[in-house]
Specification:
Layout: H1 15-27, E1 29-30, H2 31-41, E2 46-51, E3 57-61, H3 62-78, E4 86-89, H4 95-107, E5 110-113, H5 120-130, E6 134-136, H6 141-149, E7 166-169, E8 177-181, E9 186-187, E10 207-210, H7 217-220, H8 222-228, E11 231-235, H9 240-250, E12 254-257, H10 259-266, E13 281-284, H11 291-300, E14 306-310, E15 318-322, H12 323-328, E16 335-337, E17 341-345, E18 358-363, E19 370-373, E20 391-395, E21 401-406, E22 411-413, E23 416-418, H13 420-428, E24 433-443, E25 447-456, H14 465-473, E26 484-487, H15 501-507
Keywords: Ligase
Pfam families: AMP-binding, AMP-binding_C
GO molecular function: CoA-ligase activity
Length: 510
Amino acid sequence: MTIEWSLMGLSNVNAVEAEAHSAIAQSGISFGQRLYDRALADPDGIGLTVVGIDGTAADLTLSELDRRANQWGRALVDAGARVGSYIVLAIPNSVDLVLASLGCWKAGAVPVPMRWDLPEWERNRLLEIIRPAVTLDARTRATMAVSAQNQSGEPVSPAVSPSINGICSSGSTGLPKVIVTLQPAIWTGQQGVPFLEHWTSVERPQTILVPGPLYHTNGFITLTYLLSGDRLVILEKFSAAGALDAIEKYRVTNFTATPTMLARLADMPDIDDRDLSSVVWMVQGAALMPPTLLRRWFELLSPEQVVMAYGMTENLGLAALRGDEWLAHPGSVGRGFRDTEIRIQRPDGSLAPVGEMGDIYLKAPMSGLYEYLGGAALLPATEDGFRTAGDVGYLDADGYLYIADRRTDMIITGGANVFPAEVESALTDHPEVADVVVIGLRDPEWGRRVHAVIEPRDVAQPPSAHEIIAYAKGRLAAYKVPKTVEFVDEIPRSAATKVNRSAMIEVRGG
């Protein structure tokens, strides 16, 4: 079998890496072929369920997924896609989004999911650096869907996407970035190994709830579990009620969620009466988890069913731990996971001793296998292959990692360094606080003052700023306590529950 292969546009791959990847591609099974094999093995098995905002659902069997992915692959080629082409997918979670992604892998193209609701100027900046062969968005979606319906569903010629996918960054701290993995879309079997198998065996196939948007890494990566034979239950849009309904109806076995999602689930009035018995495990990622919320999930499930993971889209490496480990090392995000090495460096490059704060550097087998489109510099690297995303933290004597925050988010106030995540974690436990974001605002006395933006649980009767500040004083060093407090009806978060700190600072005068 001959598989088409291309390294076009991947400037971060040296000759040795290119030769190694090419050899893998020539002997491996493409993602498209893997889907075909899964469909042959279990044609009537449900591979995908997409749950609409109104609760209606669409089910697709593995044979339907394979056939329609072939149709979408051909439609993309007709629209201009080639092996190695970037294909922008700027539509919400939907059957079309999944099929278009699978169609990219069938055609050997590179899917780049993108937020569909970006302001025009930001969308245009990203499109300028991606230079996609095809853009699937609100304007082209209907035409592309009709084109796909008119295509043959027979198997396509095998092709390998030179990159599994790209992920867009909004560029909130500088140039817009598109992070492209340099791993080719070759099925190795490792892509479908459940996180929990690091600790215990996991019965498969799994039924995986996808509560967040596929334009985020945690959402898009679940498509590789679909290829492994697991069933995906994708929410068109996250809501706590919708997620709980899906868990019960489809007997969901696992999911990945952000702390904000988990807080909204835990705050549901009937959460203690809901049936979570099918859930074998869940992963928390994307942000630090407040201890009170974490302990609440230990009650809803058990410590052994809760996994916390720390990583980044650039795939520099991973740290992870299970809830029972966290109880022995409270506040940690884990130890090196799947051959990841972790070390802490001082600004002068020397290694920090146990317990001393410094820059977090990671090294893993896949470290460095990424590039940025758009001209952004790669993340700093040491001569021996360790890389940092700019996060700050320390290691304890047992090798467990603790994160303070991103250095880029650090607030320098009166000459002292304050990490927003620490202040947010302290304020989140206040019984009248539903959500909080801490930012640094210009101040004539302090340079930057610590400012807390709070979404109260009861918008009609928020706590006073004095109450919030007094609460913070009981939990934080004086220089970390917010000097000003602001109440809003809702914290502006994306569908992935992320917040744009730079934008919040800008609208408040910088």
